[in-house]
Amino acid sequence: MVPLLHLDRVRKVYSHGLMRRPTFTLAADLVLPDSRIVGVVGPNGAGKTTLFEMITGSNPPSHGTVRVAGADIHRVRPNERDRLAIHYHQSYQVRSFRTWVPSILLDRSPTERPVLHLFDEPQFNTQDGYIGFMLDFFRRLRRDGNLVVVCLHPTARHHLEILHEIGERFLLVHGGSVEQKPSFAALIGDQRVRAYLGQEMTAIGDSLAAVGG
Q1: How many domains is the chain partitioned into structurally?
Q2: Which domain holds residue 84?
Q3: What pTM does this model have?
C-alpha cells in the first residue's frame, strides 16, 4: 500500500551571506502510512511551519523528496497541490505558495480531494463547545480516510488535553530533526519535551499520561 505521507531523506537548509553559510537545517525521514491523527510539538523556531510548508509544496526541500499518496508534491501543478495536502495556518486560512515552473511541465494530482490536512497552531475558543466541535471535525476527517496533522504550542492545559485526546502518533520537531513518538506518554517522557514545556505544563502532561496514552 502506498503511504499517505513519505518524507524521504528530506532536508531544508537556510543560509545567509555571500558565502551562503548555513543558518538553520531541518531534516526529516519518516513514513506515516495511513489514516490517523498526528500531534506535532516543538519549541518556537524549531521548524514546524517549515515542515508543513515542505509537505504541502509551498517550500521546496534542499534535498530529498516529499511524497503524498505516492506523488512528489513538488512536481505536482501548483493549482492542484491542495488536492493532495492542505495547510491551515492558525485561524484556519489556507497557506498559499508560488512556483516558477510552468504548470504544463508538472504532473497532475492523482487525487481530487486532499488526503492530508495540516493544522498549524489552530486557535481554539474555550467556550460554547467549540473545542468539541473541532475535535469531532478532526475525527471525521480521519474516518474519511485522511491523514490529519495538528501542530500545537502548548501554553495552556487544554492544549495538552487536546493532544492527549486525539493524538494517535506524535512528531517532535527539535534540534533540527523530526522524530516520531508512538504515544502521548512517550512524548511527555522525552526530556527535551519536558524542558520545552516547563515544570507546570510537564506536570499536567504527566497527569494526563498517567490515565492512559
Answers
A1: 1
A2: 5-210
A3: 0.90
